[in-house]
Amino acid sequence: MPFSIEPIGRIHSPYKEKFSVPRQPRLAPSAKARIELFGEANSPEAVRGLEQFSHVWLLFLFDQNLEAGWKPTVRPPRLGGNERVGVFASRSTFRPNGIGISAVEVKGITQQGNQTWIELGSVDLVDNTPIIDIKPYIPYSDAIPDAIGGFAESEPDVLPVIFSTSAQLTLKSHSQGQHIQSVIEQVLAQDPRPAYKKNKADDKEYATHLFDLNVKFKVESDSSSHNPEINRNFIHVTSIERF
Question: Which class would CATH give 9-152?
Fold first, then answer.
């Protein structure tokens, strides 16, 4: 039987586009976010007691992917983007009902006039993503110490991030420059390029929209070693421009 779901709010995050959004929550801990509640959910009564919990489950819609549909198998980035697994064995954004779930930290509840906000720690959601439900994280039930993570058993590798002189100057002139630099470092260290380019240096210059900035970067190879087997790639932030 068909049914409909109405969003109860939306997320406000530094990620203005899908590219560069961390593939899981808490991978960029400096990137804070907040939920703007809607309608009847926009009430101090609706969040009464939520401050007692350190984390919540967010249920949300992959609204930018809904029209694209879905397939029974997907290519997870963790497997290099080449090997297929069932969609239900992945966290692919292309799903039968386009519903996502993330466990995130609650930083506080704030009230600005008639607007109730939920302040959050690091999230993996694009700015303006519709939120369809919020549930408290219950440690004794939700945390499973001996759980097995399949092909995503360990945390992803990260790359060093360096900033060009011009990029550093732009950040210094920004009122939130130090905070934004931390976010950029944590986001780009995950290497947001397509999975098949993982562990490969790349001449192409990429760009991503974070906060009010257009951040351009390349993935380069440290050729200081005479042994090519131990050369390491790094992220080079070539320039940062304000929108």
Answer: mainly beta
Q: How far apart are CA 22 and CA 20, in angstroms?
A: 6
Strand partners, 239: 216
Confidence of residue 231 (pLDDT cuts 50, 70, 90): low
The span from the CA of 181 to the CA of 172, in Å, is 9
Residues 6+ apart with CB under 8 A from 166: 239, 240
Query: Which residue's structure tokens are 């630099």?
Result: 181
* pTM for this predicted structure: 0.89
What ranges do the domains of the chain cover? Answer: 9-152, 161-242
Over range 183-206, report the average pLDDT: 92
d(CA 219, CA 204): 8
Q: What gap in Å lies between CA 239 and CA 214, rounded to an integer? A: 8
Query: What pLDDT does 57 receive?
Result: 98
